[in-house]
Amino acid sequence: MSSFSRSAQQWATFARSWFLIDARMQPPGKIASMCSVRLQGKHKPIYHALSDCGDHVVVINSRHIAFSGNKWEQKVYSSHTGYPGGFKQVTASQLHHKDPKAIVKLAVYGMLPRNLHRRTMMQRLHIFSDDALPDDIRANLTEELQQPRAIPKKLSEYTPEEVEAFPRLWTPYVNAPRHNLGLPQTSASCRLLGGFPTTGEHLQLVASCIDDDEPEEGDVTPAGLSQLVCGRQAAL
């Protein structure tokens, strides 16, 4: 048996809720997709394309959104005043510097249906460049939505215990002293057959270093092994 009465369930379904989304280090497209669903009311069982049943969405930290790759310079926003010579284009970085709310607002506006309800839905979108909210809006908040992408930690945020526990993916054998590798103090050499070394041959070179008291012509000595691994010079 439900803990809420039928009247309470119906009231909660038809009432307009206020959702909070933190856009810090989040892609604008993911934020706009979440906002579009709540503004249209698609998450409700009473949704219909011709009914205005959407909720309010509050987006904070729009100043700290993140783009992947080089989209800050490659993505272009165009506009036209309708007069001759009124066509303008600005990059995402220029638009964001001028108005930190514009990119999120345009992304949400483009994901809403192109009908007469779009302007009404946009009136229920509240965007703030920082995390400071007015008291009247903060009092109406009912739920905070989870961020679509997990924020990676900075190197300065890792504790010394986490740094020590992190697995070592490779060991710098080339520049390590011979006594640390458990090798004899005599000269080690290996021979490279063929042309310019590939990545697989680099690994074979490191793995096949053997003790050779009389290196022959064409052998690779430990001094030249580091140059081979870097791919800059083949000491043949």
Brief rundown of the structure:
The protein has helices at residues 6-14, 28-40, 71-74, 92-98, 102-111, 118-122, 135-140, 160-165, 199-207, 222-230; strands at 18-22, 56-60, 76-80, 87-91, 125-127, 143-144, 188-191, 210-211, 219-220.
Going by helix content, strand content and strand pairing, the class is alpha/beta
Largest sheet: 4 strands, parallel
Strand content: 5-15%
Order of helices and strands: HEHEHEEHHHEHEHEHEEH
Q: What is the average per-residue confidence, as pLDDT, rounded to a whole number? A: 81
The end-to-end span amounts to 82 Å
Pfam families: Ribosomal_L13 (PF00572)
Protein name: Large ribosomal subunit protein uL13m
GO molecular function, one term: structural constituent of ribosome
Family: Belongs to the universal ribosomal protein uL13 family.
Structure description:
The chain has helices at residues 6-14, 28-40, 71-74, 92-98, 102-111, 118-122, 135-140, 160-165, 199-207, 222-230; strands at residues 18-22, 56-60, 76-80, 87-91, 125-127, 143-144, 188-191, 210-211, 219-220. The protein has 236 residues and is an alpha/beta fold. It has a four-stranded parallel β-sheet, with helices on one face. A three-stranded antiparallel β-sheet has the order 8-7-9. Strands 3-4 form a two-stranded antiparallel sheet. β1, α2 (28-40) and β2 (56-60) form a beta-alpha-beta unit. α2 (28-40) packs across α5. The longest helix has 13 residues, at 28-40. The protein is flat, with a radius of gyration of 30 Å. Mean pLDDT is 81; it is low at 186-196 and 231-236.
